[in-house]
Amino acid sequence: MSDLVPYLDHVVINVAEGLNLSEQLFRRLGFNLTTRGHHSLGSSNHLAIFNDNYLELLGYEDRNTLQRKDLYQAPLGLNGLVWKTQDAAAVYQQLSQHQLAEAEPKAFFRPVKLNDGTEPNARFQTVPVKASRIPHGRSFFCQHLTPELVWRAEWQTHPNAVSHISEFVISARDIRHAAQVYVDIFGKEHINEIDPQEVALQAGGAKVRFITPEKAQAVFGITLTDDCDEAKMVALSFGTYSLETTRQSLQRGEIHFTEVGGRILAQVGHGLGLTLAFYEN
Q: Where is the Glyoxalase-like domain (predicted)?
């Protein structure tokens, strides 16, 4: 399926009904978040927009209006790996040919509050990868029909100096098995063998890393658990313009962090079970 090219669009952190707490937490972490948006599917979000990708805090205010049961049934934390596409219909056709499509493209929208007082609709089409192939979360393709309502300059400057998401980290005992779905989607030429404990997939300016629990502990300080045999989305790394600015921002937010090997590590609580790493560009 070499016609599909891996390029990270955004990552999703499921916060369920904890939108208020997660908004406060990520602002303390130094992210400039958009005002709360509300999807036509009943979910709500805050975004941290970077140069060519973004982070989404996804939850809901009223479970009764939510059209997506998967959102409140899914575990909290990092659970969405999203790929860019310019043609959702073509992606669906290609995934279907290889029995990798979960459903047909879904269209939805979200009103966006702009500085000039207008509130146009940001519109999207998404194509999910078969859920049984992504036991550790969700993966789907997203076509932005109105990208000018997402990547706006006024949202791309952050107190913590983050410029982009540089790594999406999945921990698994069998790293090759965890990565196989992306081999099937994009082709084996996109998967690089880093060492016996890691394989990686270049995704535009970001990298998707599949690492063993032992390497996750050594590199990110992630504590092993009894169910570590199951693949999990466990960490994000960010490029920053200035690690000193990042450090000062975290200190202002009263965020505990450690520094190891030229990077800053912060463990995110509130049930999200997520590690954030910051590197200087």
A: 8-184
Phi, psi torsion values for 203, nearest 5 degrees = -135, 70
Q: What is the pLDDT of residues 148-180, one digit of tens each?
A: 999 999 999 999 999 999 999 999 999 999 999
Q: What is the mean pLDDT of residues 218-244?
A: 86
Q: How far apart are the C-alpha atoms of 249 and 159, rounded to whole Å?
A: 6
**Could you tell me if residue 233 is left (phi over 0), alpha (psi between -120 and 50 degrees) or otherwise beta?**
beta
* Coil, strand or helix at 166: strand
Residues 8-153: name the CATH superfamily.
Answer: 2,3-Dihydroxybiphenyl 1,2-Dioxygenase, domain 1 (3.10.180.10)
23 close to 58: Cβ distance less than 8 angstroms: no
Token digits of residue 280: 């200087």
The reply to whether domains 8-153 and 162-280 share a CATH topology is yes
**CATH number for the domain formed by residue range(s) 162-280:** 3.10.180.10
Tokens 């090997």 locate to 261
Q: pTM higher than 0.85 for the full model?
A: yes
β-partners of residue 101 are 129
* Order of strands across the sheet that contains 206-211: 191-195, 198-203, 206-211, 162-171, 232-240, 274-280, 263-268, 258-260
